[in-house]
Specification:
About 25% of the residues lie in helices and about 30% in strands. It is of the alpha/beta class and about 270 residues long.
Length: about 270
């Protein structure tokens, strides 16, 4: 069996997360025979948003595609970068008039991979188009142009994530991997769905294990106790990289996921 290994990395939090990726990702790729890395980077710049500097470091560190989410618009200076670089994706269900692209077909090791970034609507952005509708439109438009798809569904509700995954997998649309991001908490429900898509509800994050979702614990606790506004500060100690490694069978041309493994990498 010919296998294509994809590493999907959870939300990279702040400069400490970016630097952790810079120090370790190439070795992780080598040790696990990784062919492609996709990482969510929407919090890479100071823990909120992404900028050209953090994106550049992430790419240089071994990431092939950066996905994002609802924080993509935090840095106005990044909008031009989005228009110029389709290897950073913003959610495809934002209006077409927004900067950047929501999906891209990229040739990696001779395979045409359709990367799609979608945003949830439950507890998040109710005014935007449903990710279900957006996905249908993209798959219809590109049905003959890709070998398999990789989807980041940046959403809050676990039910919405699993529903979208089962909806897409049920259509048997050559979907290799569907993963959730946004909550920064790694779930333990990794599985291969009925028609061969690898799935996990949330990858987790690349951030501090001593934090609350990547932010200094005392700040978040203060907010819960006082209900007063606080300034978020990224915790920079004890960083870990969370995500999944998926094995895609390329031998028979069906491009189904045949293996999925959660990872939690720390520096010794």
């Amino acid at each position: 069996m010919n296998v294509f290994n994809i590493l999907c990395v959870g939300d990279i939090i702040g400069s400490s997360g970016v630097e952790f990726v810079k120090r370790n990702l190439w070795n992780i790729r080598k040790d696990n025979n990784i062919d492609c890395v996709v990482a969510n980077g929407e919090n890479a710049a100071g823990g909120n948003g992404i900028d050209s500097k953090s994106a550049g470091i992430i790419f240089e560190s071994g990431v092939d595609v950066i996905t994002t989410g609802n924080h993509i618009w935090q840095k106005n200076s990044f909008h031009d970068f989005l228009d110029a670089n389709n290897f950073v994706l913003r959610p495809a269900n934002y209006p077409d008039s927004c900067p950047g692209a929501g999906y891209n077909i990229i040739d990696i090791s001779g395979y045409k991979i359709l990367f799609i970034n979608l945003l949830g609507t439950v507890y998040m952005e109710p005014g935007i188009e449903s990710g279900f509708v957006t996905a249908d439109r993209i798959f219809l438009r590109e049905k003959d142009n890709y070998d398999f798809a990789v989807i980041d569904f940046h959403a809050e509700a676990t039910s919405e994530k699993l529903a979208l995954a089962r909806y897409i997998d049920g259509k048997n649309l050559k979907t290799g991997v569907i993963f959730g991001t946004h909550t920064h908490v790694q779930t333990s429900d990794e599985k291969i769905l009925k028609n061969g898509a690898g799935y996990i509800t949330d990858l987790g994050m690349t951030g501090s294990s001593d934090s609350i979702l990547g932010i200094k614990s005392e700040i978040i606790i203060q907010k819960f106790l006082t209900k007063m506004p606080v300034k978020f500060e990224v915790e920079e100690e004890n960083i870990e990289l969370q995500g999944i490694i998926c094995k895609i069978d390329t031998g028979a041309g069906n491009f189904k996921c045949t293996g999925i493994e959660r990872i939690n990498f720390t520096e010794s």
